[in-house]
């Protein structure tokens, strides 16, 4: 496993390379896509991207947690969390590629 | 929201681009992320989240119907950790 990490700039490069729009516009398009997905999730709506996966919201009940270091009880408020469910296609592509 | 709706939205915000190219932009982003994960690399999108691959080591499982022991091979599964900003926003804290 390599330690390489891709960022927004790499996604913008891919758009620049694949579609041929300027680097600056490519960067804006990446941002626009991430913003549209984020804004939809913030409204509480699921985002489904076929063959990639879906971003879903899950409402968690409040509970009593514990500080693992001190053993002290701390209340954890009910909260809404985002979970990503990878599609079957994505899971298979990754497992196939890395199981060689 | 599904992918086609995301493409529509992005097309509406970018009327100078062909619908076909907007479609390619969206596909290009997720294909690039997928290919990075296929190489075992991480994709970190600050404020949004980070995609990585987690290793599930091989283990001895059981067929729940028959109780037979079966060996389960090592698995590589995609994982997403929500970024701080988005995590706070979906919870209504930001």
UniProtKB/TrEMBL annotation, chain A:
Keyword Nucleus attributed: no
Keywords from the UniProt entry: DNA recombination, DNA-binding, Transcription, Transcription regulation, Translation regulation
Gene Ontology CC terms, in alphabetical order: cytosol
InterPro entries: Hist_DNA-bd, Histone-like_DNA-bd_CS, IHF-like_DNA-bd_dom_sf, IHF_alpha
Gene Ontology terms for molecular function: DNA binding; structural constituent of chromatin
Pfam families (UniProt xref): Bac_DNA_binding
GO BP annotations, alphabetical order: DNA recombination; positive regulation of metabolic process; regulation of DNA-templated transcription; regulation of translation
Family the entry assigns: Belongs to the bacterial histone-like protein family.
Job description of the protein: This protein is one of the two subunits of integration host factor, a specific DNA-binding protein that functions in genetic recombination as well as in transcriptional and translational control.
Subunit text: Heterodimer of an alpha and a beta chain.
Protein's recorded name: Integration host factor subunit alpha
Native source organism of the sequence: Glycocaulis alkaliphilus
Gene name as annotated: ihfA
UniProtKB/TrEMBL annotation, chain B:
Record flagged with keyword Transcription: yes
Keywords: DNA recombination, DNA-binding, Transcription, Transcription regulation, Translation regulation
SMART domains: BHL (SM00411)
PROSITE patterns from the UniProt entry: HISTONE_LIKE
One Pfam family linked to the record: Bac_DNA_binding
InterPro entries: Hist_DNA-bd, Histone-like_DNA-bd_CS, IHF-like_DNA-bd_dom_sf, IHF_beta
Coiled coil: none
Complex and partners: Heterodimer of an alpha and a beta chain.
PANTHER family the UniProt entry points to: DNA-BINDING PROTEIN HU, INTEGRATION HOST FACTOR SUBUNIT BETA
Family classification: Belongs to the bacterial histone-like protein family.
Functional description taken from the UniProt entry: This protein is one of the two subunits of integration host factor, a specific DNA-binding protein that functions in genetic recombination as well as in transcriptional and translational control.
Name used for this protein in its record: Integration host factor subunit beta
